[in-house]
Design a protein that fits this description.
Order of helices and strands: EEEEEEEEEHH
Strand content: 35-45%
Distance between the termini: 19 Å
Helix content: 10-25%
Largest sheet: 7 strands, antiparallel
Length: 124
């Protein structure tokens, strides 16, 4: 919607109320905290080992420091009216939708994949 053209958008956007807490999705160590002015806003990247990282962008406030260990479910990051979430494996961004629905049966999983591929959809 910003550029009036289709562009690649890696990751998933979640609409959340300003002031919402954002939780780490897996155990890891904070590898980067980015606060300089970029299109991604305040960003935290967590290294989970085995080549996996997660990225949390558009944060209002950051409550972790580089090098800090976090556990899944910790209030590792916080406060965003819009959270952009990415999964990175060996430096390549991969579609996070495949990691969200492990508890679904095959039929429901395929339905979610169709929704995700249709574009401009929200899982909120």
């Amino acid at each position: 919607p910003f550029y009036k053209t289709l562009t690649a958008h890696q990751g998933v956007d979640y609409t959340v109320s300003e002031g919402s807490r954002v939780f780490a999705t897996a155990d890891g160590r904070v590898s980067r905290v980015i606060t300089q002015r970029t299109s991604s806003g305040n960003t935290v990247i967590i290294n989970h080992g085995n080549g996996y990282e997660t990225s949390y962008s558009h944060l209002g406030k950051i409550y972790v420091k580089q090098g800090q260990s976090v556990r899944r479910g910790d209030i590792g990051l916080s406060l965003a009216p819009h959270l952009h979430y990415e999964i990175i494996h060996n430096g390549m961004r991969i579609d996070p939708v495949h990691y969200f629905f492990m508890e679904l049966d095959y039929k429901d999983y395929r339905k979610i994949i169709r929704i995700a591929q249709s574009g401009m959809q929200s899982f909120d």
